[in-house]
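Q: Can someone sanity-check these two? First one:
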Amino acid sequence: MTQIKRLQKSIREMVTALEREVERREIVLVGVRKRVTLFPEARVDGLKEPLGRVLVVDNEILIREVVVDMLKALGYEAAMACSGEEMIRKCGKAKKERNPFDVVIMDLTLRCKTIKRTEAVRELKKMDSSVRIIASSGYPMDPMIMRYKDNGFADRLVKPYHIKDLKRVLMRVMMYH
């Protein structure tokens, strides 16, 4: 199975899993693209401030959008980036504005044009030592995800993941790191 077919299968599985969790949903069909935007069972009402700031870094727009929707439903402020370079830029800007990200969810198949993904993690940690980086991958046997702590990550998420998995991992990294 080619990498593209595996990625397409992973995206289909993630969307299917998310659809099963949602009672009411808005689905926008654009070609073969589906977007789930509402997670009523995860809504956190009455929050005056977000639980934290999270940057979702993935080269697949569908995955970025779905994860951002899940984060917002859980009560987090969320932003997205599509490359390692954009991740570094956004984190640097947020740090300068004294509004840094608490967590970065970084896809391990991320394409970085000028730096390797391990260098991107080091650069991010050097820029902001308090940021917690979560490794995300559809390949559970990837050495970086298997040894995520050795590679500078606070935790990991294996795609496709459910909103409850995201919530559990975020609670763990926000409380213990």
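And here is the second, same format, sequence then tokens:
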Amino acid sequence: MAGVWTFSTSPAPLAPTHSASDAMPQVLCSMTPPHARPPAPSDRQATAPTTRLRGRVFRREGEYWTIVFESRLIRLRDGKGLRYLAHLLSHPAEPIRCEDLHSIASWQTSQSARSAERTRVAVTKRIKASVAKIAALHPALAVHLAARVRTGYTCVYLDDAGRRVSWRP
């Protein structure tokens, strides 16, 4: 699926106490997905990108994750927190020990109670940091995840009440 990438550069603002050598240009980039423009009534039948964005997707593609929620697509660079979320989303309502999540994402195992506490804290921080990154690009998904992902010594994704929610990998 192709989108339109937009790049712009802007010099960093100079404070009176900074020298000119401190001014580094900032490069901003964003992607406008092809479905961003609502279809006109005449071309509703031919809008393939919209039909591909139905459902929920949380899929790793190389170093990036493709995430679709409420017909909106975002892409994020890979990180352990996203791997934890992907595993929780693929096992809704199933409590998963944080040590198991950690070993899935980093291929390491924890052994002592002290390391179990460190693992719990690390997993929680990474999940919350990933939800914060998602919030910057897709606030509705961040609200959904914040309300339904529980962290602790066991972590769980609680799907929508009364119905099974499937996330496609």
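A (reply): Looked at the second one. The chain is about 35% helix and 25% strand. The radius of gyration is 20 Å.
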